[in-house]
Every structure is written in C-alpha cells, then in structure tokens.
Amino acid sequence: MSFLEVIKEFHPKDVAQAIEAKGPEDVEHALGAKRLSLDDFMALLSPCAEAYLEEMAQKAHAITVKRFGKTILLYAPLYISNECSNSCSYCGFNVTNKIPRKTLTLDEIEEEAKVLHNQGFRHVLLLTGEAPSRCGLDYIEAAIRRIRPLFSSIAVEIYPLDEAGYRRLINAGVDGLTVYQETYDKDLYLNLHPRGKKRDYVWRLLTPERGGRAGMRRIGIGALLGLSDFRVDGFYTGLHAMYLQKHFWRTQVTVSFPRIRPAEGGFRPLSPVTDKNLVQLICAMRLLIHDAGLVLSTRESAELRNNLLPLGITQMSAGSCTAPGGYSHKADTAGQFEIHDTRTPEDVFSYIRSRGYDPVWKDWDTAFLSK
Amino acid sequence: MANKTQEDYLVINGRRFRSRLMVGTGKFSSPQVMMEAIEASGAEIVTVALRRVELNNPEDDLLKYIDTEKYLLLPNTSGARDAQEAVRLARLTRAAGCEPWVKLEVTPDPYYLLPDPVETLKAAEILVKDGFTVLPYINADPVLAKRLQDIGTATVMPLGAPIGTNRGIRTKEQIEIIIEQATVPVVVDAGLGAPSHAAEAMEMGADAVLVNTALAVTPNPKLMAGAFKKAVEAGREAFLAGIPEKSLKAQASSPLTGFLRE
Ligand code: SF4
C-alpha cells in the first residue's frame, strides 16, 4: 500500500475538525502514553495542548536524550543551481522572478565544497531548482563524484527522480534524500504550484517511497510551514514519517520544520506559524516518533535556534548560503530565501558546546557505499 | 475519520475475522472435548498439525469434527526441521484440497520447539512465491519480523514464551517493538497460559493471539476457552480505548519553554 492510499483516508477538513475537537483529557492521555496513537498525536497538535507545552517539551527532551544522547549533527546546504522551470508561489527561484540565474561548473562546485570542508563540514546537502534541461542527472552525478572525496555523507534536495535515478545517485555516492511535500492539502498544493512538473502532487508525494525502494539510507521530509494550517500539515507529516519508518525500516527518517522566509517575489505566509506553534509541532513530532532525526535550518533566528536546541532537534545547518556560488564568492546570484541565523559555523559549534551538547561533524562514512 | 470501535475486524490477507483468538488442536483428551472448547472460544481460525492428520481421509478423527465452512483450517508445519520439509508439508496440504494458507513452523529443536529463524525465512520466501498465505511462527525478533513482512508473509507470530510453557509474555519488550513496526497483523503465539496473558497481549496492541495448551490441559477446556474469549475481547477493547499510563508532570527542572513568554 502506497502512502497515497494511506492519506486518502484522511481528508484535511476532517483532520482539522478532529484536532480542533481535542480536549484536556485527550492531551493528558497522549502525554501519558508510551506510544502515541494517531488520536494522541492529534491531541498534541491541538489548540488545547498549548496549555501543556512545558510538559510536552520536558518529555520531548527526555526522549531525545535517551535515543540520541546529547549530540547535534551539523550539515551545510550546497546550492549548485538556481535555475528552475517551476513557479511555486513562495519560492525565490520561481521562473517568473527576474533574478540572475546560475548553474555552477564542476570546478565551481568543488571550490564551494572546499570552503565547507575547511569549515569542518563532512555532511553536505546538495540542492538545485527544477530545471532538468540545464541541470540534468548526468551533471548532478558528476557533481557528486567530484565532491565525494571531501565529504563523508552527501544528501540531495533536487527535483524528484524515478527509482532508477536515485539508484544512479546512490552509486555515485549519495546516501540521503530530502524532499518536502510543501503542503499535503492537494487543493492548496495545486493553487500554489500553478505550472511545471512540480504541479504533479502524486509524483511528489510518492518521491520518498521511490527513494526508499532505491535504497536511500536517510530520507528527509517536511511541510513548508506557513502555507496551510500547521496542525493539519503537521499531522500529515507525522503520518508520512511513520509510514516511511514502517515500510523502509532500513532507512533513517528525518523531519524538517522549514518556516517560510522572505524571498524574491514577496510571498506572504498564508497561515503564519508562530514560535509557539513551532515549539508545539517539534515536541509533538518527537513524542510521536522517538527515533526520527529532527532538523532545524538557518531559516530560524540564532536566538530561537538556541532555545529550540534541547526540544528534540538532532541536526542543524550552520553558516548557510542559499545562492549558488555564495560560499567562495560574495554571491552575485540570488538565494532561494533569506537566511536568519547568520552566525558562522564556528560560532554555532561553540554555542552548542557551551550548552553541554556535542556538535558532530561526521556520523557516516562513504566507505559504506563504495563498491 | 473512522471510529475505532466500529467494524473492528482482524484482516489477514484481505480476509476478515471477527474473532481475534486462534486455537490449536493438539493435546485435547478427545475430539469432542476439543470441539466444545473451540466452539466456546469463538475462534474462526483453527490450526492443525499436519503430521497428526490424514488429509486425504475424511474419516480422520480430527478433520471429521472441524466444520470447514465455519472455521478456517490452518494447517501448520510443526515437526518440520528445515525449510525443505516445511515447504513439502505445505504443498501436501494444497494438493489435498486445503486452502493455500499455512502456519509456518520450522522447529528443529525437539525440546523447546524453538523456531529456526534462518530456515523459516527461507521457507516463507518459497511459499509466498508459491501463492501461499504464510503465517510464520517466530521468536520475538523484530528484525526477522521485518524481513518476513518484506517478503510478503501475511502475519508474523512471535512467541510469548516457549511452546507449552504457560509462562505468559516473557518477550514483552521485543513484541512491543514488533507491534510498533508491523505492517501486517501480529499474532502472539505460544506461552500464553492464562486468560490474563492473552488480555495482556491484546492490551499491548497485538492483533490476535493463538492458544492451545492452556485450553487443552485444564480439567475444563470449554470453560477455559470461554474465559480466553472474554479476555481477548477485553484486552482488545482496552487497547482501542487507549490505556492511560502515568501522566508526566512537568519536572521542577529548568523550564524549556520559558523563552516563549519572554
Ligand atoms: S520550490 Fe523548487 S521547484 Fe519550486 S520554484 Fe523553488 S526551486 Fe523551483
């Protein structure tokens, strides 16, 4: 059974209603449960649970320390192209935006990669827009092979591929795949993606499964927070993460919580997500899935990231730049969105240390993949 | 959203059962006593050791009594010492006209009858390809359960304790992991000696339990079978209702969400 069949059982309106209807006894039940049912998860996402945030946080913290210890894995995004033929309303790379476009040459990619390597990073996330004609699979594969000696783990956040495509990338040295559904609400999804291949909701929804079948070791999912009601999209994200964990049990599932940031095009969040909402979502996710990696990017402010550190987060990016070429040169191209936490990797590293956590540069080795 | 209390069927390979109690047919003092117990148990799935019956003989003592219209006859391969033997036995049942459902047991150890994980996996793979609905009996090993699911078995049946020991669920932690990760029904099999053991398995979220010795070796199998029936139903209902555990009060330790009010 694919996730498409699972999600069909849950209409967004019903989910919203069920979440809204949860009361204190539901929340208390969920807080006491060893393993959450979907009903419990809804209770923790409900407005009613806001009164229990501190309890949720304490429990999320305890579970995370038990399962992950006090470690935070550091990674960096590496944008290799901002070309895109899609027109996602919220994104700076939207084809209708008049921004300088660039696809890095292999030499330029290596130059960027060396900067990150010298900063200490061994986990890198390779990103592109969606322009297969200018940024095809051959090119992406070549990029991976080029930077492979510099990193112990390479994940990709690129346009969705078929299973064979992912197998090719794995052979080239990729071990992780990140793909956000943006929103699980199909009608809203179609509104926000008026043109281009990304309009195909189902193709995108089933991408993590194709990656899982191809043998990805890590798969990251998430909803873009600010598009739809975070409680409802949060529920779907949890449902999706559980599905992936169960069906691809050799794969580590991670969940990200990207909030919409200002970007070229001036999109405003449709359903703004407050700091408090974000805390609730992260804690609820941790209580639902004890073993998922929870990822926090530099979209959030330094101050908020510091405060979120003990609430269940296990991975953080640092010193990020969302424009291709931006690490080695002052970017003459545009970024995908504005980053918020502008501290250097070194600063983030020492802050994590100061909180009694161990910042980890490497917890994987490509030797696992070499043929 | 579906109301959890409505239409609570056990579904195995698309087939629906109202009862979540399966029973075995060994060790009863007579077929009549056995049948009374089965009826009182409300079970719809009855497992029969192939090595005990003559499938081709309708006058066989055991088969004569079990109404296959009413019960799904689930032949088991107990006695098989390796994959080859189990596969051969399973094929025999089909050749004799049974439905292609099999409880796969590969138990080379004649003392505790503990299942051989390697041979079980091998046999399951062959039988699934062969079109059988395979319900494998296994030790409570979560990774083995996953691998069996991957190759397409219809359930997994982890043991609570070695067969016939009546010791209850000694593998609780492992079974909890299996239940948490399962994509097929989990049937707790072996070791359940008292109705409270069955209730416990159901409260943990098992989809069904299988009982034999506990019914067969009491002085009053019929009464005991009824007790198991109720225990399984009670455990299931408690699971559906959601058993509250001790609620966690915020510890006095430094608050983690204080910054939100700053
Ligand atoms: S979100 Fe991705 S596909 Fe959509 S416009 Fe941006 S880069 Fe292109």
UniProtKB/TrEMBL annotation, chain A:
Q: Where is the Radical SAM core domain?
A: 70-305
Q: Which SMART domains match?
A: BATS (SM00876)
Supply the source organism for this entry.
Dissulfuribacter thermophilus
Q: Which cofactors does this gene product need?
A: [4Fe-4S] cluster
Pfam families named in the record: BATS (PF06968), Radical_SAM (PF04055)
Q: What is this protein called?
A: 2-iminoacetate synthase ThiH
Q: Which PANTHER family match?
A: 2-IMINOACETATE SYNTHASE
From the UniProt record, give one GO term of the biological process aspect.
thiamine biosynthetic process
One of the entry's Gene Ontology molecular-function terms is:
4 iron, 4 sulfur cluster binding
Entries under InterPro entries matching the protein:
Aldolase_TIM, BATS_dom, rSAM, rSAM_sf, ThiH, ThiH/NoCL/HydG-like
Q: Which UniProt keywords apply?
A: 4Fe-4S, Iron, Iron-sulfur, Metal-binding, S-adenosyl-L-methionine
Automatic annotation (TrEMBL), chain B:
| Name of the protein | Thiazole synthase
Q: Which organism is it from?
A: Dissulfuribacter thermophilus
User: Record's Gene3D superfamilies?
Assistant: Aldolase class I
Q: Which catalysed reactions does the entry list for this protein?
A: [ThiS sulfur-carrier protein]-C-terminal-Gly-aminoethanethioate + 2-iminoacetate + 1-deoxy-D-xylulose 5-phosphate = [ThiS sulfur-carrier protein]-C-terminal Gly-Gly + 2-[(2R,5Z)-2-carboxy-4-methylthiazol-5(2H)-ylidene]ethyl phosphate + 2 H2O + H(+)
Q: In which pathway does it act?
A: Cofactor biosynthesis; thiamine diphosphate biosynthesis
| Active-site residue list | K103 (schiff-base intermediate with dxp)
What's its job?
Catalyzes the rearrangement of 1-deoxy-D-xylulose 5-phosphate (DXP) to produce the thiazole phosphate moiety of thiamine. Sulfur is provided by the thiocarboxylate moiety of the carrier protein ThiS. In vitro, sulfur can be provided by H(2)S.
Oligomeric state and interaction partners are given as: Homotetramer. Forms heterodimers with either ThiH or ThiS.
- Which processes are annotated in GO (biological process)? thiamine diphosphate biosynthetic process
Q: Name one GO molecular function term.
A: thiazole synthase activity
Key words of the record: Cytoplasm, Schiff base, Thiamine biosynthesis, Transferase
Tell me where in or outside the cell this protein is found.
Cytoplasm
Question: What residue stretches are annotated with the Thiazole synthase ThiG domain?
Answer: 12-255
- Give Gene Ontology CC terms: cytoplasm
Which residues are 1-deoxy-D-xylulose 5-phosphate-binding? Answer: G164, A190, G191, N212, T213
> Taxonomically, what lineage is the organism?
Bacteria, Pseudomonadati, Thermodesulfobacteriota, Dissulfuribacteria, Dissulfuribacterales
EC identifiers of the protein:
2.8.1.10
Taxonomically, the superkingdom here is Bacteria
Q: Which gene encodes it?
A: thiG
Primary subcellular site in the record, as a coarse category: cytoplasm
Give the matching InterPro entries.
Answer: Aldolase_TIM, Thiazole_synthase_ThiG, ThiG
Q: Which family does it belong to?
A: Belongs to the ThiG family.
Give a yes or no for keyword Zinc in this entry. no
